[in-house]
Structure formats: C-alpha cells, structure tokens
Design goal:
Layout lengths: L2 E8 L2 E8 L4 H8 L18 E4 L2 E4 L12 E3 L1 H4 L4 E2 L1 H8 L9 H14 L5 H7 L11 H9 L8 E2 L4
Parallel strand pairs: 1-5
Antiparallel strand pairs: 1-2, 3-4, 3-5, 6-7
Length: 164
Amino acid sequence: MKKQIVRFTLNGTPREFAVAANDLLLNVIREQEKLTGTKYGCGIGECGACTVHVDGRPVLSCLKLAVEAEGCEVVTIEGLAQGRELDPLQRSFLDNNAVQCGYCTPGMIMIGRTLLDETPNPTEEEVRSHMRGQLCRCTGYASIAKAVMGAGEYETKAFRMPAE
C-alpha cells in the first residue's frame, strides 16, 4: 500500500510519519514511535485504554486514522509529564492507589486530565460521569475517582520521577 507523509506534533515535538491511508493513530504511536503507554485494549472504541489528546480533546486512538492527525497536537500519557516532573494527576493516581494491573491507567489519566482542565475541583458525580466509557476490571473505580478529585492539591507542587 502506498504511504503518505503525515506531520503532527507529538508530545511537543514536530514529527513526520510515513503512513498508509488506513494506519491508525494508535499504531503509529506504539509501533513507529515506540510509545507503549497508550494501550491497545478492545480495538473498537469501547474501553478507553487508547485515549490520547488531539488538540486538547480526548480521542480514542484505535478509531482515529493517522492521516486525520495532520497538523494536530497529539499528547500521549508519556507527554503529560514535564521532563522528570509527573503531571499532578499521575502523582495522585500513585498516591491514591488508583493503579492495579495498570492497563487502563493511561487512558484513565488522559480522560481525567481533560476533566481537570475544564473543572479543576470536580465532584465525584462529575468524575464518574466524565469518565464513563473508560473501563477498568480491577479497581472498582472508587480509587480512580478519589485520585481525580484529589489531583487539585498537587497542581502547585512539582513531583519528580525517581532516578533510573
């Protein structure tokens, strides 16, 4: 299949990709960029594990063609941290034990980040409503809701990832 060049900004860096017309954004992120934080879950837009931000909005990357990202700003879970400083929501997920197997966690954080950007201090009802469609088979959602609601207290603090 003939490839075409698609240009978009990925996690703050302008990038160029050779893609087929039917290549999914998810596959470009995972296979060409080797950014494996974005997960392949169901492949039909039902679980939310593949959620990324495209121009600031949550998008299921398993349903978006890479060519549709032309000229866009794409942010993955890896792009939320600023260097070695975790995003406050990432820190809150860790501190609130909102991670079990971790497969859904990147999608949960990405959708949670969009809520916090719109509503800095959401209620539990707002969190649960906004995150409807993000599936988790491990946590029962209570710790996830707590992490999203509690992220505001971390917003002004910097949290560094441990040294490797």
